[in-house]
Write a structure and sequence with these properties.
With 216 residues, the chain is mainly β. The protein has one domain (2-215): Porin. The protein contains 1 helix and 11 strands, in the order αβββββββββββ. The protein has one helix spanning 2-16; strands at 21-34, 39-51, 58-74, 77-88, 91-106, 109-122, 128-140, 150-162, 167-181, 184-195, 203-215. It has an 11-stranded mixed barrel.
């Protein structure tokens, strides 16, 4: 783990030292609990820690607390309704979100589509709204499906449109996943974000993301 983090930090600084950029880590815990055959309750906590110095010093940026209900509308489709409480630089931001997920299976490849709509309510700024679309592809490294004690790869591509500012942010996220058992899986990878896609003054963000999924 220390080797992976070290390589990530050195590569980030080398690649983005000449552009408007930001680096850091995004640790996240996700806990889901099944209520019945169609409904489950999902909670998560996620932090954002920014690297702000060549000595690799970390600065805490924000903390997200999220809760949502997920309703199975079809065999491979779900509707998610949720709320996020964000603590960022002394400010509290409330966010509501609605998502629709569709899963497709093509042989050993699992494709996931997510369409989302968000409403942001900052304390000291005007409210704003965002539309999102994400596609992910997941494939086991062994066999036809991901079993316990097996690795898999997952790649995500997402586009986020701020309706108020008309800014578009693009995200690319390759991950290596490991299914510990039927209740736990761990994913680690990178997440590259570029904002102001339609503007010449882009901002680049490069994160090391780790997510631990717990299913009760």
């Amino acid at each position: 783990m220390k080797y992976i983090i070290g390589v990530f930090l050195l590569w980030s600084v080398a690649v983005f030292s000449q552009v408007d950029s930001e680096f850091g880590i995004l640790p996240k815990f996700n806990i889901s609990s099944k209520i019945n055959s169609k409904l489950k309750w999902v909670n998560s906590i996620e932090a954002r820690e920014k690297i702000y110095d060549q000595d690799f010093l970390f600065e805490h940026v924000l903390l997200d607390l999220s809760t949502s209900v997920s309703y199975k509308t079809n065999l491979n489709e779900r509707l998610n309704l949720g709320y996020i409480l964000r603590f960022e630089e002394g400010e509290v931001i409330h966010r509501l979100f609605q998502q629709y997920n569709i899963i497709q299976k093509i042989n050993t490849l699992k494709l996931g589509h997510r369409i989302g709509f968000e409403q942001h309510f900052p304390e000291n700024e005007a409210s704003f709204y965002r539309l999102r679309y994400r596609i992910t592809a997941q494939k086991p490294l062994n066999g036809e499906q991901v079993d316990e004690n097996e690795f898999y790869i997952k790649v995500g591509n997402e586009y986020v449109w701020n309706i108020s500012t008309e800014d578009i942010e693009a995200r690319l996220s390759p991950y290596l996943g490991y299914k510990i058992n039927k209740h736990n899986k761990l994913e680690i990878g990178t997440e590259y974000r570029i904002s102001n896609v339609l503007d010449a003054l882009n901002k680049h963000r490069f994160w090391l993301r780790t997510t631990w999924y717990i299913s009760l």
